Amino acid sequence: MSNQELESDHYDVIVIGTGLAESIAASSLAKAGKTVLHLDPNEYYGGEQASLTLDELIYWSNQYTSSTPSSSKSNTKYHGSSITPLSKELAQDKRRYSISLFPSILPSRGYLIDTLIKSDVSKYVSFRVLDQIALYSQTDNHVEENFKRVPGSKEEIFKDKSISLMDKRKLMKFLLFATGEFENDDILKGKESQPLNQFLQESFSIPSSLSNSIIYAISHCSTADEPTLEALKRTRRYLKSIGRYGNSAFLIGQYGGAGEVAQGFCRACAVFGGTYVLGANAKPTNIEITPQGVSLDIPCHPRRITASHLIASPNHLTPTLLTDSPLSSGQAEDFVMAHGIAITKTIPDILRRKMSNPEEISSNEEEVENDDTAIVLFPRNDQDVVKCYINGEGTGSCPTGQYIIYLSTCVPSSSWESAPSDILKPYLEKITSEPIFEGYYYSSRPSSDSTLSSISDSIVKLKPYGGKELLTEGLDWEAQQGEEAFYAVMGRSECVKGFFEKDISEEEEMGIGEDD
Amino acid sequence: MSEETPIKAVQVKLVLLGEAAVGKSSLVLRFCQGDFNENTSPTIGAAFLTQKCRLENRIVKFEIWDTAGQERFHSLAPMYYRNAQAAVVVYDITKAASLEKAKAWVKELQRQANANIVIALVGNKVDLVSDSTTKPTEPTKVKTEENEEETEDNEVDAEEGEEEETTPSPAEENTSDDIRQVPTAEAEAYAKESGLLFFEASAKTGHNVGEIFTEIAKTIPFDTISPKPTTTSSGNNRRSTNNNENNNVNLGDNQQAKKGGCC
């Protein structure tokens, strides 16, 4: 089977890498009738968005132990990686974990959710609603009291006894403003680039006790001084996401999130006729531009393979295929993030407690389960917030009674001298004192204006997410990249079918075999 | 199969595995639509098909996943196996190598899939051989309505196909022996020792196809996937299956639901 060759020497599109954007592009093009060859030199699906078993994670981590990143200009780089050895128990269960290299939650409105629905991939990738968002503030009291659950919806704000009536009014006024067409509102005029914390204080008299909740837990900013307009636009989308599927604005992908979603799109692509080759057999070499498109070699095929288009992220393209983008300012720095992954059997009770909601309990016959997904935010003075994302057994990504904890924060590039664990471990310790596994690494991603473009229209280069809000924005970025790649190949015209556009006959067929 | 349902159907994810061109899709099409298409293209164009199977005391609704060609370069995604409660591993009785491949898939299932997955080993294309002696359990009802050449993937020519009759003559038996490369006893012994259900079937004639799925439905340990889960469970898969059913969001519904639970 490994010696089998491909059915054809020519494809309309070759996609290299099975990251989320690549997989969405591949399936949308296959759906539109293109012949697609999808390659990934990795043994696993998902590329930068992969969800890995523990043994795969160890293999992955061992590649990036160097203390400095590579000098490559346009792709995501990893370095400073270290992990604790596996205990006997973990080694035995290593395949029962699905650990994300791209920990992220999905706003209920946005590119990815639309794409999932349009493509029907939502039928075989499962999601659940994020249980809670909590803000950490150090007090001298009992450790449990340091975590404060941030109300996720209007109802929860009304019920929250810790907020005074007057503050509730201010908060509601701001939320109403942030949900509306604030671009033309006089309140914002001239203050578009004012730091958000200042804007909240001056324009809405929000007390500092409350502004952290808005900045970090509702707007999901990395810093309190993010420019107001930018933060507001994001906030509006999150606020409008509340209530679509639940009381939270966010969904969590089961079984490791992004990697599973990427697999779902790859499956859709295969169903539409796409060909898949993974592993060493799929490693492309000698990529060349030809008058008709591109050509390349892969080990599993004896002849050169040609295609009209090639879609890839920059790490699969040699420097000769890339050129400095005219838009590049040349001096934008990479965003550097410190990441932590831990597995534990204990988290603070407050993060597991259901918000008391009598209405919900009475209407639900099932036993009340504990919360097991949470976002915890640790604001830091003059530094970026530390974001913590907890996945319990209900997400299917770890064995019963365990939690996977993802930590991340943006750091100045000067901090490379210290290990990522120095930055993040103190925050992990606030959540659990006895992790059974820990791993840390740095990632650096080019900010969006410093990317390279490809030298030919036949090569469609995908850009990695270049912002700080990977946790809440990363998935939608990938979906948007996938859609752009689709149109880069298909062109935008009236006579071409759109991104995952259905035939009329297909619309009619819908429902057959779906007789629930 | 489509009578009104007095009891709620239990949904079962079933995955198909086996070498390319052994007739995986054809078996499913036969089961789901009662159809056999001589020229089934390598992919069947749907993420999964569903078909109900009625037992005495319950209805099992199979959600049948085909490989969509992703098995060819060993690129089946982990999501394919995820939460599968049953698997049908198919080989072609006229190709010895396909049984070896099937054994490799069984190993892969034991590595990747739920511990309590029910696996059926199915030797397909018995319509190409006619020696009833090797398959004592089946009634000799093999009719060959179509005399055209088989699909591109098997080497039998039309004349040989024509000769398959209900009562084979000795001469024909010889032909059959030539074609059959996997003796029933050999595959059956392997299935027995590995704890698999075993069938020889024909997607073309429909022989034994329904039986495969009925037997799987009977064999699945339903206490582990019943809607009322036992809360104390040791296996993580079992627990997460339950959680799926209870907490998953149906994105496609586009519902303005207040709560996250589906249905």
TrEMBL record, chain A:
Pfam families membership: GDI
Family annotation (PANTHER family): CHM, RAB ESCORT PROTEIN 1 (PTHR11787:SF4), RAB GDP-DISSOCIATION INHIBITOR (PTHR11787)
Protein name: Rab proteins geranylgeranyltransferase
Family label: Belongs to the Rab GDI family.
Gene Ontology biological process: small GTPase-mediated signal transduction; vesicle-mediated transport
Cellular-component GO terms for this entry: cytosol; nucleus; Rab-protein geranylgeranyltransferase complex
Coiled-coil positions: none
Membrane-spanning segments: none
GO MF entries: GDP-dissociation inhibitor activity
Organism: Kwoniella pini CBS 10737
UniProtKB/TrEMBL annotation, chain B:
UniProt-annotated stretches for the region Disordered: 130-179, 223-263
Keywords per UniProt: Nucleotide-binding
Molecular function terms, GO-annotated: GTP binding; GTPase activity
InterPro entries: P-loop_NTPase, Small_GTP-bd, Small_GTPase
PROSITE patterns registered for this protein in UniProt: RAB, RAS, RHO
Matches recorded under Gene3D superfamilies: P-loop containing nucleotide triphosphate hydrolases
Compositionally skewed regions (Acidic residues) per UniProt: 146-166
Biased composition (Low complexity): 230-250
SMART domains per the UniProt record, alphabetical: RAB, RAN, RAS, RHO
The keyword Nucleotide-binding is assigned to this record: yes
Protein name stated in the entry: Rab family protein
Organism: Kwoniella pini CBS 10737
